[in-house]
Amino acid sequence: MVLGADGVVLGDIGLVLGAISVVLGADGVVLEGDGVLLGTDGVLLEVDGVLLGADGVVLGADGVLLGTDGVLLEVDGVLLGADGVVLGADGVLLGTDGVLLEVDGVLLEVDGVVLGADGVLLGADGVVLGADGVLLGADGVVLGADGVLLGADGVVLGADGLVPGADGLALRADGVVPGADGLVLRADGVVPVAGGVVL
């Protein structure tokens, strides 16, 4: 076979072969009459500088499958997002290793918990969480997964942040018993000092 000057394939005796004219590029790639690259199976390889894969699927510059609108597609059952980032079934960004990635500078973790840029865990509502996923409050007070308040030392606290005592009195985190008016009480429930005078 011989490629004629006009790009048609000629047989050994100079006759045009086949009903469809085919043009070969310098590297042996089949071209349509308009110069668009075709694969050996007739599937377009390039249109306006954009590579096409099987079934007309667009390939990005790095060979990642794109839809005709440029949106990344599923590959082996995994949805790809921008820049080749894998999307989980719920649309959450995943790395190629399946680990959740940063979104707007925040590293995503499991169950809506995020890891802030400073390494602090945040709940879905932005509330700071401890390393074990418990809610951190003021003065090291934490709210356990069961909703119980715990002091920094792990002692159960009442809703007011005080340690409930067996006698109905409550202890502050520093072990002092405050009265209803905030004055310090003795163990017997009496205010030892009022206005500088011991009672």
TrEMBL record:
InterPro entries found in the cross-reference section: Serralysin-like_metalloprot_C
Recorded superkingdom: Eukaryota
SUPFAM superfamilies: Adhesin YadA, collagen-binding domain
PANTHER family: PROTEIN CBG03580, RHOPTRY PROTEIN
Full protein name: Uncharacterized protein
Species in which this protein is naturally found: Ranatra chinensis
